[in-house]
Design a protein that fits this description.
The protein is mainly alpha-helical. Helix content is 71%, strand content 2%. A two-stranded antiparallel sheet has the order 1-2. Strand 1 and strand 2 form a beta hairpin. Helix 3 packs across helix 10 and helix 5 crosses helix 7.
């Protein structure tokens, strides 16, 4: 028999939910409401005067070629980070699931990057690929490849993508490994007895059973690419060279905190929030249909 907890008091559930509701209200809904309000205003750099301008901030953004280009950069960046992060993590989880000796050592080493702060990860990769001091850049030079992400836009994008993927691999790896270990071994053994090879067993049994985990990680990684990579980009390239690595969330910071254009920055944050919510809804509306629970 399933046990259920029944609250005889009508106010006790709300009291238990109150701390979480306060946290969400203060740190999410209130800043979001402030951003929406500021997006319809123009404020001077010192916050001394405010003017209501309606949709002018949004119209100016849509006429700004640098802002429109940041959409393409963000789309490319998010696809690369989510796609590579999920694919590499799945491969590592498959290998880790098959290791018998020293399994805990390998799993621990793969989890370590998740404990590194985004800024530290950005600084680490920036030093490794530094044109003058970086170890990786030095060996690439010996192989005949001139690495200089300070001047080369494509290399700068590659650097922040690699750093972002490396930072997120541990999170994806944990979920994929748990998903693989939850698959009944009897299914794999039965398929092996029937003559299915490793690739056939993975494609027809393991991958379909991992679809709920993959869908969850797809949503998480898209949100991660849009928001949580700010620290990595700021530490590794600061949005440069030029604006080549300035994705939407970093442009919000540049315009709001460096240029002190608070109205435009607020409008950008509202647009970014709408995009992420829309992508999440689309994923749950269409992609989830292919998930096999």
């Amino acid at each position: 028999m399933e046990k259920r907890v029944l609250f005889r008091s009508t106010w006790l559930p709300w009291v238990l939910l109150l701390p979480q509701l306060l946290i969400i209200g203060i740190f999410f809904f209130w800043p979001a409401a402030q951003a929406v309000l500021q997006s319809f205003q123009i404020e001077d750099a010192f916050g001394m005067s405010t003017e209501w301008v309606g949709l002018e901030n949004f119209a100016n953004l849509l006429d700004d070629p640098t802002y429109l280009n940041s959409f393409m950069r963000t789309a490319l960046f998010s696809v690369l980070v989510a796609g590579l992060g999920i694919a590499i993590s799945l491969i590592l989880a498959i290998f880790a699931d098959r290791i018998v000796r020293a399994a805990m050592l390998y799993k621990t080493l793969l989890i370590v990057p998740y404990a590194v702060a985004p800024v530290i990860a950005g600084v680490l990769w920036m030093f490794m690929f530094s044109p003058s001091l970086g170890v990786v850049a030095h060996y690439l030079g010996e192989l005949g490849y001139n690495w200089n992400h300070i001047m080369n836009e494509g290399q700068a994008m590659a650097l922040v993508v690699l750093a972002s993927v490396w930072k997120q691999i541990s999170y994806n790896f944990l979920f994929f490994l748990a998903g693989l270990q939850s698959i009944p071994k009897s299914l794999i053994e039965a398929a092996s007895i029937d003559g299915a090879g490793p690739w056939r067993r993975f494609w027809n049994i393991q991958l379909p059973l991992l679809s709920p985990t993959t869908f969850f990680l797809l949503v998480i990684n898209i949100v991660y690419a849009f928001f949580d990579t700010f620290g990595i980009i700021d530490a590794a390239t600061a949005g440069g060279p030029g604006q080549s690595t300035s994705i939407l969330v970093y442009k919000v910071y540049q315009d709001g905190f460096k240029s002190l254009d608070l109205g435009s920055s607020a409008a950008q944050s509202v647009i970014l929030m709408i995009i992420v919510v829309a992508l999440t809804v689309v994923q749950f509306r269409y992609v989830e249909k292919k998930v096999q629970y």
